[in-house]
Amino acid sequence: MNTAIDDVIERVRRTYGSWKRDTTVAQMRQDWDELFAGVAVEAQIEDIDAGGVKAQWVRAPGASGPQVIIYFHGGGFQVGSLVSHRELMAGLSAAARCRVLGVDYRLAPEHRYPAALDDAWTSYQWLVGQGFAPNRIALAGDSAGGGLALSLLLRLRDARQPLPAAGVLMSAWTDLTASGASYETRADSDPIHQRPMIVAMARNYLGKNGNAADPLVSPLFADLKGLPPLLAQAGDRETVLDDSRDFVARAQAAGVDATLQVWDHMIHVFQQFPAQLPEARMAINDIGRFLRRHLAA
Fold it and tell me: Is the pTM above the cut of 0.85?
């Protein structure tokens, strides 16, 4: 008997399974958006220009006040968009009771590293320039977007700028060298992502001369001292699990208030399926409580 997670896996597999060697990046992006299209979200959406970076305000009913979540979508720095992540951003806005700024950062291979990080930096500087206080801002992201949120925190810290109040990481991609043991221990249980795919995505993002071990590319290898409180969530079935486990362990060792939630039977970024998965709804509610606590200061 199929469970809800089995149905979600089948949906995702149909999209991945349609991609061949000659499938263009443009087609992949369209297919990924269509996987999440057609879902009506209860939120106000407004396209904006965040200092030259395309972005959107996403505001659920009841979301008010000076608090903001800056959201970086996942997709291996090559696919994903504000369309594919609109339902998730609306859910976060409702759970945290504040508005979300979704950042439409530039994607590879047209725009390789550090284009995405530059856009993240620009959008944050724009938001602060609009009068939003850093201690009322949280960063959040999933997969590649989770890694990007961490990279931005590191860049801000190294520039000695005031840091956001907190960070939320969903199945964060923190190690583009793909060195985690979970690539072996979860290889049979992960129905979607395997190490060769992850390595290829990293190569497409960085280019042939890129350094996957650069701390601003792979935050797992950074000095993590001084980062704000972090909440990381991951699924127990995903090969990228150790990107979260190892990162949180290193963050805690560096004195960071970092918490890891590992959800049984769940896959990579399961939070994108709140209509199908009660676990996704519970995880988003946990994020909301975490953010309300840290953005209330």
Answer: yes
